[in-house]
């Protein structure tokens, strides 16, 4: 069975060459247009990783300030959106590391072995409010792995590099996080079943 295609990132917005040239030249109106195009994906990614709207707003601002400061570093060897997304991910993970208010990840001592071929979260995850609540209930690093893997299409190796961990850490957090997310989103799951997975 062929592997499922990676999800398209919400950042996958093509930036016209002329608009990019105007941004490089310091055209404020051009940058404001770029800001409007990428505001929602940057904020959403930051919210999913940080779990806090105020922190996500800070990440959005820091990301866009870095884009202004570093626009000269963008060489055009990859899509602009990929370059901007990398800045946003780095800013969100830095904010997460500075916060460290919650347990970082789900425990590894429950005897659960991660599957290599993990299914995405259940259909209830399509409900944005339910998904937000369920993600907010997960530990920060677990939530970050889930979002980077399922929504942004990062590989375990890429996540490991971003989080300064191993690929097996990413795989185990994905497996445990997906299982916990399923329990939180599935109305058929009893409280006792969820408690057994805690």
From TrEMBL:
GO terms for biological process: DNA-templated transcription initiation. Keywords: Sigma factor, Transcription, Transcription regulation. GO terms for molecular function: DNA binding; sigma factor activity. Transmembrane segments: none annotated. The keyword Transcription applies. Pfam families: Sigma70_r2, Sigma70_r4_2. Residues 38-101 form the RNA polymerase sigma-70 region domain. Residues 130-181 form the RNA polymerase sigma factor 70 region 4 type domain. Signal peptide: none annotated. NCBIfam families: sigma70-ECF. Belongs to the sigma-70 factor family. ECF subfamily. This is RNA polymerase sigma factor. It comes from Luteimonas aestuarii.
């Amino acid at each position: 069975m062929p592997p499922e295609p990676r999800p398209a990132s919400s950042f996958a917005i093509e930036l016209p060459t002329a608009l990019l040239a105007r941004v490089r030249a310091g055209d404020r109106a051009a940058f404001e247009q770029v800001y409007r195009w990428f505001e929602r994906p940057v904020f959403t990614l930051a919210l999913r990783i940080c779990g806090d709207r105020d922190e996500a707003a800070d990440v959005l601002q820091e990301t866009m300030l870095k884009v202004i400061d570093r626009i000269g570093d963008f060489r055009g060897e990859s899509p602009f959106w990929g370059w901007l997304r990398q800045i946003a991910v780095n800013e969100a993970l830095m904010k997460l590391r500075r916060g460290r208010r919650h347990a970082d990840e789900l425990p590894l001592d429950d005897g659960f072995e991660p599957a290599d071929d993990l299914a995405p979260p259940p259909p209830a995850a399509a409900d944005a409010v339910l998904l937000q609540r369920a993600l907010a209930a997960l530990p920060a690093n677990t939530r970050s792995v889930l979002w980077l893997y399922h929504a942004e299409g990062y590989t375990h190796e890429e996540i490991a590099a971003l989080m300064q961990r191993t690929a097996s850490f990413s795989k185990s957090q994905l497996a445990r996080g997906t299982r916990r997310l399923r329990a939180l989103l599935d109305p058929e799951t009893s409280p006792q079943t969820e408690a057994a997975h805690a």
